Amino acid sequence: MEVNDRELWMLKRKRKKITHQMLAEVLDCTQAHISLYENGKTNMSPEKERMYQNYISKY
To answer: Which residues form the signal peptide (predicted)?
Structure first.
């Protein structure tokens, strides 16, 4: 089974114990949007996607 980029970022987020609520506040979106994004059911703008990845990387 191959892990895609979104799954990899979700795993990193979970390892660091970053919640959807924390990300939603930083990205100015809903927790549901974060969940849908991580599950591949919606997309984020490239800018928000960079912010998502940067927050997880730097946490």
So the answer is: none
